[in-house]
């Protein structure tokens, strides 16, 4: 009888501690850490697949949730740029001196052979504007306690119908993300292996992205340097400047 009473008390106490914070609050705190007024990142992409290993370098700039510019600096892709401004995505090829608006099926294509698609770079709207979120419990990821948050799309124009995020209960940075199709098939898996403090903010600086549909491949993103909330010329996020 005593054991039954203790078990009943545990069933009452544990859920109340798990759900002391709402899923919406967790996502808001996550975005406070990951959305910046402005940022500049110097980084590398290491692509590993059946053809071997390929390393590409890039510089990226961002402003809020709408604007982003990625410029590749490695020899093979030097001068290639990807621009996101609000709901549009553009690709510039220096050799052809051509700017292409990415849309439709083209968004599903891989970015320079990586596990990331152009579709992964679209959006810009906050997670709470795109998904209904539910706190499903807590789990450890890599030894770190995390909130497990389930997300289901409320708009048709999001790349993934549903996602599951494991968000660090102390740092409010995701440690793992699973992205699913409407049928429930796992499409992408993201794992964060290193987090660093930058200007008082906790940011992921090393992560691995896997496209489970491709199989036998992974793309590691490494941040070599990062500056946040810095002055940026607004013109760098314009089509007029993309070809420079």
Give the structure's gist in a few sentences:
This protein is of the alpha+beta class and 244 residues long. Helices cover 15% and strands 47% of the residues. It contains 4 helices and 13 strands.
Topology overview:
Elements: H1 2-18, H2 23-34, E1 38-49, E2 52-63, E3 67-72, E4 81-85, E5 88-93, E6 98-101, H3 127-130, E7 131-141, E8 144-153, E9 162-168, E10 174-180, E11 186-198, E12 201-211, E13 218-228, H4 239-242
Antiparallel strand pairs: 1-2, 1-13, 2-3, 3-4, 4-5, 5-6, 7-8, 8-9, 9-10, 10-11, 11-12, 12-13
Notes on the structure:
By secondary structure, the protein is an alpha+beta fold. The chain has a single domain (22-242), classed as outer membrane lipoprotein receptor (LolB), chain A. The protein has 4 helices and 13 strands. It has helices spanning 2-18, 23-34, 127-130, 239-242, and strands at 38-49, 52-63, 67-72, 81-85, 88-93, 98-101, 131-141, 144-153, 162-168, 174-180, 186-198, 201-211, 218-228. A 13-stranded antiparallel β-sheet has the order 6-5-4-3-2-1-13-12-11-10-9-8-7. The radius of gyration is 20 Å and the shape is globular. The relative contact order is 0.17.
């Amino acid at each position: 009888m005593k054991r039954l009473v203790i078990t009943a008390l545990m069933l009452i106490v544990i859920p109340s501690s798990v759900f002391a914070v709402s899923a919406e609050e967790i996502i808001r705190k996550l975005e406070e850490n990951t959305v910046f007024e402005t940022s500049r990142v110097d980084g590398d992409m290491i692509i590993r697949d059946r053809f071997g290993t390929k390393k590409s370098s890039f510089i990226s700039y961002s402003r809020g949730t709408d604007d982003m510019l990625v410029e590749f600096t490695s020899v093979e892709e030097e001068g290639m740029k990807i621009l996101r401004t609000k709901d549009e995505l553009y690709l510039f090829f220096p050799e052809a001196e051509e700017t292409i608006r990415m849309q439709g099926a083209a968004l599903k294509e891989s970015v320079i052979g990586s596990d990331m698609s152009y579709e992964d770079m679209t959006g810009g709207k906050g997670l709470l504007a795109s998904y209904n979120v539910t706190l499903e419990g807590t789990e450890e990821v890599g030894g770190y306690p995390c909130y497990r948050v389930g997300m289901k799309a409320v708009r048709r124009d999001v790349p993934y119908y549903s996602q599951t995020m494991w968000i660090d209960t102390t740092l409010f940075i995701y440690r793992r993300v699973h992205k699913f199709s409407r049928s429930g098939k796992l499409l992408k898996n993201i794992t964060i292996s290193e987090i660093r403090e930058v200007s008082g903010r906790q940011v992921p600086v090393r992560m691995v992205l896997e496209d489970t549909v491709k199989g036998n491949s992974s793309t590691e993103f490494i941040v070599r340097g990062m500056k946040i909330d810095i002055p940026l010329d607004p013109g760098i996020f314009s089509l007029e400047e993309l070809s420079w």
